[in-house]
Design a protein that fits this description.
The protein has a six-stranded mixed sheet with strand order 6-7-8-3-9-10, with helices on both faces. Strands 2-1-4-5 form a four-stranded antiparallel sheet, covered by helices on one side. The termini are far apart. It has helices at 3-9, 14-21, 23-39, 42-57, 60-109, 121-132, 135-142, 146-156, 158-205, 207-212, 216-268, 274-296, 298-314, 378-386, 408-412, 429-433, 442-451, 455-459, 477-488, 507-522, 557-574; strands at residues 334-342, 353-362, 367-371, 393-398, 401-402, 415-418, 495-499, 526-530, 542-547, 550-556, 579-580, 583-584. 61% of the residues lie in helices and 11% in strands. The radius of gyration is 35 Å and the shape is elongated.
């Protein structure tokens, strides 16, 4: 990527850039729209000539020439329509293909956020693409050429022109009223639709709990309320649009008849010809047609406009960032200094400190066990060490560089992470272990499975490594956790973070985990284990104890365990004794 592209992209939403870069296509569509609207005068002018020239002169050659002329003009009209439709469909396709990775990436990153309200970027992008290729957008391109038809009617007679202008003003007022009355309902409908879709997906993922604990009725009732809110707001917007659409259509038909009537009056007075009367009626109706089409497609337009605004908002500043210098492959030197982390705002943070005063250093081959009570900050520390979160104060450095100095995708190839709630994505077991790398070799995949001591487990499944998760194989929690461990240690990363990696494991799984940590240390990896059960720290050589987000102890495992044991014994001795009527307690 050139530096010019980087400067052009920096700080701008990629969707906004993609739309701007299609300005040549928008200009072409505008020019074709001009030609189309100009050629729409062919029919009325042909009728004018037939009434005023052919019927009065009874000239068949004149009729033939006129007919041959309109054949050519209507041929161009069809061609222009084809070009305009083709360009818009290709623009929508190109924008979708350019933005779909950004949208899906945002959708994935949303999984890191605990915010209550989430957008659906992929669905919003589809809505924008569909509107670009629809007849609704062409109606907006036809709007600027309404004056062409008004001028044509004025040329025929000023009275006819002013009558047409009055019709345009009335329908424009209805269009503005339609916008004011439907904007909020459509926005509310979209919000509830997103909420119901998110709840539907979460309830599907929790199907076992929903069915086993008799929650089906309650879950369906809750989803029904969300869906009802979406449908009712959407129906409220549709009701307003239907009223204005019906009225505008009636006004357009009334205007055509009124122009015809006024034209007949002027024709009786021999001010205009009968051909002018017919042509003015058709052209006047055509002048109102784009506005009528805009009202008919107004709901789709508002939905696409809101989707475009949401995408621009969430993608703001996520354009192509300037390229970072490619640092050497990390060896695993981890240095955490004076780290302070506040609770993220999207998770309901109000300035609460979840980690403070965290200090430790690890060398390649070290394995650190992080221990402490529940909610002491172990998982938060794991997110900091993987680069998912950044500290408010202090620093986390890998081989001397903070995480924002690395390209996240390149750095991620050298980090292994097993989250507390491990899940596998839909795809083959091989693809999951290989992190969906299409260039992954079978040897490396099998090596990772063997290091995680899960190779024989996989071979026992129907299809082995090619078994598709969620399709032809159902895995237990322990099997998922062990295969996810193989993914975390694939290609022997320089830094491996395991967040309670044995929460679903049996004794055999615990033994396999200990062997895997030992193998990683021997290979030179730095391992950090967030431990809740003692068996998880069997293979570590250092311990870090945190309590309520504060570092309590750090050092060699034996020394820290001795201090913890001594402190526990001292606390037990100093615990006060209370007496009760039944004796000491």
């Amino acid at each position: 990527m050139s530096s010019q592209t980087s400067k052009r992209s920096a700080g701008k939403a990629p969707l906004q850039l993609a739309v701007k870069e299609a300005k040549g296509d928008w200009f072409s569509v505008a020019m074709f729209s001009f030609g189309i609207n100009l050629l729409m005068l062919t029919g009325p002018l042909f009728m004018l000539q037939v009434y005023d020239r052919v019927l009065t002169s009874r000239s068949i050659p004149t009729l033939v020439v006129l007919w041959a002329l309109i054949v050519a003009l209507f041929g161009f009209l069809g061609l222009f329509n084809f070009f305009r439709t083709r360009i818009l469909s290709r623009v929508g396709y190109r924008i979708d293909t350019e933005m779909m990775v950004h949208a899906q990436k945002l959708r994935i990153v949303q999984g890191l956020s605990q915010a209550k309200e989430k957008v659906q970027p992929v669905a919003d992008l589809a809505r924008v693409r569909q509107f670009i290729g629809s007849a609704g957008l062409t109606a907006f391109f036809d709007l600027p050429w309404v004056p062409i038809f008004l001028v044509a009617v004025f040329i025929m007679h000023p009275w006819l022109g002013w009558l047409t202008v009055a019709g345009v003003i009335v329908i424009t007022i209805f269009t503005i009223a339609n916008e004011l009355l439907t904007k909020n309902p459509i926005m509310e409908s979209t919000k509830w639709d997103v909420e119901s879709s998110n709840f539907s997906e979460s309830s599907r993922r929790s199907a076992e709990a929903v069915v086993s604990m008799g929650m089906m009725g309650n879950v369906l009732s809750y989803w029904e309320r969300l869906r009802h809110n979406s449908l009712s707001e959407g129906q409220r917007a549709a009701s307003s649009s239907e009223v204005f659409m019906s009225i505008s259509k009636a006004i357009r038909l009334l205007l055509q008849s009124s122009i015809l009537g006024l034209g007949a009056y002027l024709a009786v007075l021999q001010i205009v010809t009968p051909g002018t009367m017919i042509a003015a009626s058709i052209i006047g109706g055509r002048a109102l047609s784009p506005i009528d089409q805009v009202i008919a497609n107004w709901r789709n337009f508002v939905g696409a406009r809101q989707a475009y605004a949401r995408l621009n908002l969430v993608l703001a500043g996520k354009g192509e960032a300037p390229e970072l210098i490619q640092l050497p492959v990390p060896k695993g030197h981890l240095d955490v200094r004076n780290v302070v982390k506040m609770k993220p705002a999207e998770a309901g943070g109000d300035g609460d400190t979840i980690l403070q005063g965290i200090n430790f250093s690890l060398e390649p081959g070290d394995a650190l066990g992080v221990v402490g009570p529940s909610a002491s900050g172990k998982s938060s520390l794991a997110r900091l060490l993987t680069g998912l979160w950044m500290p408010e104060r202090g620093s986390v450095r890998l081989d001397g560089a903070t995480y924002d100095q690395w390209d996240s995708d390149l750095l991620g190839q050298h980090i292994g992470y097993l989250p507390q709630s491990a899940q596998l994505m839909r795809g083959s077991i091989k693809a999951n272990i290989a992190r969906f790398d299409p260039q992954a070799s079978d040897e490396n995949v099998i090596a990772a499975a063997q290091m995680a001591n899960v190779h024989h487990l996989i071979m026992a499944l129907p299809g082995g490594y090619e078994a598709v998760v969620g399709e032809n194989v159902v895995l237990s929690g322990g099997q998922v956790q062990r295969i996810a461990l193989a993914c975390a240690i694939y290609n022997t990363p320089a830094l491996v973070i395991l967040d309670e990696p044995n929460s679903n494991l049996d004794a055999e799984g615990d033994a396999a985990l200990t062997k895997a940590i030992t193998a990683l240390r021997e290979a030179g990896s730095t391992v950090v284990v967030m431990a809740h059960r003692p068996s998880a720290i069997a293979a570590v050589n250092k311990l870090l104890m945190i309590r309520e987000g504060v570092q309590v102890e750090f050092g060699p495992k034996k020394e820290v365990l001795a201090k913890i044991t001594k402190a526990a014994n001292t606390q037990a001795v100093q615990r006060p004794v209370t007496l009760s009527p039944g004796g000491a307690t």
